Amino acid sequence: MQIKRLYILLLGLLVLSSATRVEFTEYKDIKFLTTQSIFSAGDTIILQFSAPNNETPNLYCSHSYGSAVISPVLKQNILEYTIPNSISNKSGVVLWQLINQELSGQFEIIPKTKVNSLETYIGPPSIAAGGTDYAMLVVIPTDDLDNPLKENTPVNIKHQFLASEENDNITTAHLIAHKNIYSKTETGRILLASECLGKHSKEYDISVLAGTPTDFNISATRHHDYADGNQITSFSTSILRDVYNNVVNDGTYVQFFITNSEGNILKTSGTTIKGIATASLIHPDYKTQWSIQAFVNGMAESDIITLDYKQVVTDFTIAFANNTVTVGPLKSFMNQLIPDGLQVTLSVFKADTEVYTKVNAAKEGFAHFNLKQLNLEKGLYSITVKTAGLEKTLQNINYE
């Protein structure tokens, strides 16, 4: 019984060994017949192998755009493998290997020599004048299958700025051609175009804008120098320019800081139009002096100018009747009633403690405060009124 089992085992090993030898010899005579190793994109690519024993192994192809397994067509002991369009239309190196075989190789697909389109990219769209800032123009010549043309394909780039025209000849490298377009010291627009093997691009442009503004001067205009809290003082810059005397771009933001005699800081702002920025601020309502300076944040600053404002209200009266405080008449520099809107502040004190504060705007030269609206308790109060930088107090007002 054991001898029988040993015989069967030996017979199985012999059959397996024979099968292995048959499989090896079945493919060992296959040879690669195609001698061409470079093809053009879009060509019909057929790889041929000898098949003396009518073997038909599949062919595995690997490409940067993907992989494919191709079945052969057997013609008179010749295996023909037709490369699919998804691979043959794209340039690059294709690796192949017969499945379950040691036979492998590669071939190259090159782009067509005729340009179908010029893919053009440019950026940034605007640069600063001065000769150090630049934009990059990138041109990718492609064939009708969207393959970038081969290395060292000549590309001509033309650019025009003001009265000058320049012409540069470059070549593609790593599938693209590129050129740095530097600004000049003047502002304007650079026009660009490219050409490759008779194919022309459309026109592109780069805006050359003024650089960082330099320090500047400011001025102020006003109808009068009285602190009436009504009129407008207007501030204006000189024409803002960069170091090359170019007028800065419209919309450049300028801030005006105003410091008064009390150390308080006011702020107004404006944007440039044709290099000039303007801003306005209402007059103070009391005697003071303004120191004004303007800034383009982090770039430039102006000189400092000062403006003096005269006291416009020199005196006023306070009347108390029927639990109502009346302030006025408030008169301006020509003895006319002060324009509506002057702020009048009423503070109510009881035993030196402030219990209420209210602000009203003068109208037709007077300001009125109805104490009944303040919900005060009955008793004696002191009332202080402040307006136009002046202050007056009524003592021992009996509120009932």
Q: Briefly, what CATH class of the largest domain? A: Mainly Beta
Shape descriptor reads: elongated
Mean pLDDT: 89
Got a strand count?
33
> Major beta sheet, specifics?
9 strands, mixed
Helix-strand makeup class:
mainly beta
From the alpha-carbon coordinates, what is the Rg to the nearest angstrom?
46 Å
What is the first-to-last residue Cα distance? 135 Å
- Helix fraction bin: under 10%
**CATH topology tier name of the largest domain:** Immunoglobulin-like
Extract low-pLDDT stretches: 1-26
In the residues, how many domains can be counted? Answer: 4
What is the CATH superfamily label of the largest domain? Immunoglobulins
* Total helical segments: 2
Q: Per DSSP, what share of the residues sits in E-state strands of 2 or more residues? A: over 45%
What would you say the CATH architecture of the largest domain is? Sandwich
Written account of the structure:
The chain is mainly beta and 400 residues long. It folds into 4 domains: 38-110, Immunoglobulins (Immunoglobulin-like), CATH 2.60.40.10; 117-209, Immunoglobulins (Immunoglobulin-like, Sandwich); 218-311, Sandwich (Immunoglobulin-like); 318-399, Immunoglobulin-like (Sandwich), CATH 2.60.40. Helix content is 8%, strand content 50%. The chain has 2 helices and 33 strands. The strands form 7 sheets. Strands 18, 19, 20, 21, 22, 23, 24, 25 and 26 form a 9-stranded mixed sheet that branches. Strands 10, 12, 13, 15, 16 and 17 form a 6-stranded mixed sheet that branches. A 5-stranded mixed sheet has the order 1-8-7-3-4. Strand 7 (92-98) and strand 8 (104-110) form a beta hairpin. The N and C termini lie far apart (135 Å). Mean pLDDT is 89; it is low at 1-26.
